Amino acid sequence: MLFNSITFLVFFLPGSLLVFYLLGYFQMNAAKFWLVVVSFVFYAWWNPRLFLLLAGSIIFNYTCGYLIQKNLERPKISSIILTLGLLGNLGLLFYFKYLLSLLGWFHEKGLFQNYSWGSAILPLGISFFTFTQIGFLIDTQGGNARERGFLEYVLFVTFFPHLIAGPILHHREIMPQFAKKETYTHNWNNIGIGISIFIFGLAKKVIIADQLAPVANDIFKHTAEKHVVEAWAGVMCYSLQLYFDFAGYSEMALGLARMFNVKFPANFDSPLKSKSIIDFWQRWHITLTRYLTLYLYNPVALWIMRRRMNKGLALLKADETTLGGFLEMLAAPTIYTIVLAGVWHGAGIQFFIYGLLHSFYICVNHAWRMFGPKAPISSISRFWSWFNGAWKWGLTYLSVLISLIVFRAKTVTDAWNLIQCMIGRGTGDSPGGAQGVVESILDYFGVAVPYWNYTNCLITLGIGFIFILVLPNVLQIFEKEGASLTNIRSAPAVFSFQWQPNILWGFLLAVLALVDLLMVAGNTEFLYFRF
Amino acid sequence: MRSFLITLTLMFTAGLACVWTWGLDHRMDYLSRDYALLTGKDRLIDGYSQPGLAIFGDSAVMDGIQPVKLGPGVINCGTMGSTPIESYFLIKRLMKAAVHPKAVLLSYSAYHLVHPDFYWENTVKFGLISGDEADEVLDNILRLKDKELISGSGLWNLEQRLYSFLLSRGFPAYYVSSLYADAPGVRKKENEEALGVIAQTRGQYYFPQQDGSKSLNADTKLKTFVVSPVINYYFRKTLDLLKTENIPVYFYVMPINEASVPHLDPGVFKAFQDYLNGLAQEDSQFHILSPFRTVYPWKIFSDYAHLNEKGTLRFNREFAKILNKAGVPGGSYGIPVH
Hints:
The complex is a heterodimer. By secondary structure, chain A is mainly alpha-helical. Chain A is built from 20 helices and no strands. Chain A has helices at 6-26, 28-44, 50-70, 75-108, 126-141, 150-158, 160-163, 171-179, 188-221, 228-259, 277-283, 286-311, 323-344, 349-371, 382-408, 412-422, 433-444, 455-469, 474-477, 503-519. A five-stranded parallel beta sheet of chain B has the order 2-1-3-4-6. In chain B, strands 5-7 form a two-stranded parallel sheet. By secondary structure, chain B is of the alpha/beta class. In chain B, α6 (84-94) runs parallel beside α13. Chain B is globular. Chain A binds chain B through residues 1, 5-7, 10-11, 41, 44-46, 48, 188-189, 191-192, 195, 500-503, 505-507, 509-511, 513-514, 517-521, 523, and chain B through 1-12, 15-16, 19, 152-155, 158-159, 162-163, 166, 171-174, 176.
């Protein structure tokens, strides 16, 4: 089911919320059970067979977790169970996300011509619920997770606001919330805050992201035939579409959870305002970055440290500033982690390149931070300070933009074609007729703007950038109410304001909610559903 | 918090009610021309007073058949992408008029019998059929499990039911893009002009004119001819309804562009013909007019399926002869009445 569908908004959400609080009034476990039931209905809405997959995965992981916990004092046995658990989860992911694509690729290359591999539809949210459970197993083995009962575990994995596209939860931050009695008692404050955050998230999705989608889709459909301005505008549209789509979804999840008295970690903190790639990764898909750091980067970094220690090499922070230390202690774990993060998105070579590009960016960023010139802050004038911020922002956004071309394009050739168009080497012509006339007038004055039918897109692009660069993000708007479990990193916005539970905000959000509802008819899927 | 939540709820509900009511009352101001054309056909049926030949079919009919050239009792109720579903409900309404037609002529392209792709986006959205009628069709779609017309399922078909219910009741979310598709006032003017044309021509409406087109007819896309179960159901229901009223029914296949002929699948063409012959064998009041499909030069087409002005003139002269030759009740077609 989609958060932006009328079925969800009109029936599912009010119904599940109402029954949840009614049951919670009498019996906490009944309310938990109800949440599990509605979460399964939510998940299996389009394809009831998916119920079996999700249920199977939960039973498998719960059993592994239980056995690990029972055998914590016998590390060998618990390690074997953990390994089996990880293999099971990764096998499931590999089968649905990579195996058939790889076999298809072999088939294209002329191998295994006599075999028919069939097809498998990627089950919704498989990466998210598998990651959540892998984290649980590793933490159980490390003694950081405590088993709290099957119903609580199922609720932790299936709770519908995060089930399909995250945020990726850590049991330590969620399980205690499900254990509290207050979670099952209605709280008008949380309902009001939750509804408000949800309205903001839905607006990002349906008013901005969905309006940019046709332009972005068109740009990536015919990548070689674009005018330079058209190519730039199209790629920028995609960058904003992806951000508003995913950030919108994550905020809706945040709002929904809050309506049920649960606080989630945030996934976005104005990432497109970032002035460095390191900063970008700490503000974009925050829960994935956190997950990767915890379960991929840290273990590898630790392993490298141990290796260096065994070799008698230094481990201090200062040693990272030597070339060898930098490459081994920083670059290697970064490349390994970020390339895997790229490949997590799918089996295409473009995701590998996406990961490679970002790991390169991050390494360069770290190198600049360590080896680059360090200007004394006090000596910089206000203008130079602004300029310094502006070029850093521009460079960061440009780097992200280029990586997103690779990320979105169907093939590497398509991505290359589009990059060629962006540097004016495409084959795109301007349209004829009245549009052509306007373009030739602009051309005469030296403004080579193709006058194509994207006026709405340009307006939406403008609105999008105002949202990104000038207005506060949802975490800032709801700072007093603590919108999420995440600490805000971004600096105060140019125009700052705070949400207030008063009549004016009630009126403004009613108008925004109405506009949201009027725009939901498209029922467009969220981009991250495919991952 | 209480005042916030009360304001939010009240303002949202009141706003939605206002938008919904306004939207239903002002459809002519913002919906596309298709809405005006459908409304025009509806009015034609409501004001039906001179018995003759009532013609139902798709856009090729709407564009190509000129009632004023054929005779005084002829009306053209063809609509965009029309199928027997639309015809059934329009004929049912026509049966409530002061007089009944002497004969009914049906004409659909093979493509629309297989893929009724205008049903949700035109027929239901623009209110050609009422909410209750849409509910009835949906029951049949779900009963017959017609994949061509199921746009979304979800558990217990709730998604599909809700979509049909809201779309047929004018839920504003489905119309909002029409509000800003053109500058204010543009659509109202165009729609009123279209309504005027429909009233004047008794239902004929030209598509944008071009001096010839080699675009391929939609029928060329068909590789097999399998009638949608719901279309088949309403086709038979239409014939049953007219049989009960003792009104003879004729079927005619509109001319095809010569450029499309080499691309037509002969198997599809034969299956289409067999399907219609099968219906004619079951119902003695259902006749297929010949020739089964005339081929016209591409120069008299405006696009893939619609005749231009020259084509329409030629076609109506020939069509009158076909009607007269078949003895279709309703008068002598094409002969000016003074």
